[in-house]
Amino acid sequence: MNKCALSVVVPCFNEEAVLEEFSGRMARACAAVTSDYEIIVVDDGSSDSTWSIIEKLTDGDPRFVGVRLFRNHGHQLAVTAGLSMTRGERVLLIDADLQDPPELLPAMVNVLDQGHDVVYGKRIARMGETPFKRFTASSFYRLLNRLSSVPIPEDTGDFRLMTRQVVDILNSMPERHRFIRGMVSWIGGRQVAFPYARDARYAGTTKYPLRKMVALALDAVTSFSTKPLRAAVWLGLLSSMFAFSILLYAIVQWAAGNVVPGWASSVATISFFSGTQLFVMGVFGEYLGRVVQEIKGRPLFTIGEIRQQQAAAGRIDDVHGLQASLEKRHRPEKSASAP
Ligand code: UDP
Ligand code: MG
User: Fold this and answer.
1) Do 162 and 278 share a domain, yes or no?
2) Atom of ligand 1 at shortest distance to CA of 133?
3) Residues whose CB is under 5 A from ligand 2 (ion)?
4) d(CA 195, CA 337)
5) 337 domain-assigned
6) Are residues 285 and 315 in the same domain?
7) Which protein residue has the closest C-alpha to ligand 1 atom 14?
8) What span, in angstroms and rounded, lies between the C-alpha atoms of 97 and 101?
9) Whole domain around residue 290: which residue ranges?
10) Cα(171)–Cα(80) distance, rounded to whole angstroms?
11) pLDDT digits (tens), the chain, 339 positions
12) Which residues line ligand 1 (CB under 6 A)?
């Protein structure tokens, strides 16, 4: 398929309140860089009027591409769907809510064109975010970096500009549980931070409730580290030692003629150990569940419709190509050699 100079990927989940303002500002920012751009707007199974706004955008401007997923697949997979369709030599990932200012694009393109592979936005200020969110985010990144062998930059979301080469590698990574900022760090190359002040959401409410944040954090930890599995061994060892010393204490007391009194201590000890065991099993379960889902090898996302003034058909072939190549990785063909 023919290339263009710049692609923008925007995941949208119920973003009717911001999409019009966003598309205007984004298109102006792109035009300041090149006229040869495309803006791929992915509707991640919205239940509001997001898709009809996207239809209007694509009908009014050939550079807009609308992608409607069949259902809500979550932010990371919506981004994946958009990325699989990009044609640009440079690709920008940006949220629809205008927290990441589109106007930074020309400066980011300058940095990328100086010979970098990835320019990632690093938040030096965050407006309109609760102290709770800031605290949990920063403790999470500290924990993740202790666990992961791939350094993952702190205060960094998915707002970033990447070269075609990086996006091609990203598109070839088959995993279902995607933590895209970590995957991009893993790819390597010349990556540079681009400091910026993050605005408050332009309108609407966050589409990342605590539940989705926890799910993303668990995906990040399980895809970038197996250390929690080893921690289970240490935890088991420590609690066995603890149990053993209690036993020793009881025997010594018994030999000295004291009856060790109290059911409360036994109950507390039993609950402590059952808690530890359940916790450790839960950690195993988090990994095991992901293994089960990965080996099923289902498509990462399901596309309902692609909308563009022309050439939308070619894109659907591209996506099917991506799905087919991912599937091949999951189920490699048997070698042709004779038995
Ligand atoms: N989003 C999505 N699917 C989801 C949740 C979010 O496509 O299931 C999009 C959302 O529309 C936005 C971006 O992901 O463009 C980031 O979400 P949001 O701004 O609500 O997250 P926050 O900035 O509050 O962490
Ligand atoms: Mg946001």
Assistant:
1) no
2) 25
3) 95, 97, 99
4) 55
5) no
6) no
7) 75
8) 9
9) 227-296
10) 8
11) 689 999 999 999 999 999 999 999 999 999 999 999 999 999 999 999 999 999 999 999 999 999 999 999 999 999 999 999 999 999 999 999 999 999 999 999 999 999 999 999 999 987 777 888 888 888 888 899 999 989 999 889 999 999 999 999 999 999 999 999 999 999 999 999 999 999 999 999 999 888 898 899 999 999 999 999 988 888 888 888 888 888 888 888 888 888 766 777 787 788 888 888 888 899 999 999 999 999 999 999 999 999 998 755 556 566 655 565 555 555 555 444 444
12) 11-13, 15, 44, 72, 74-75, 78, 95-97, 99, 206-208
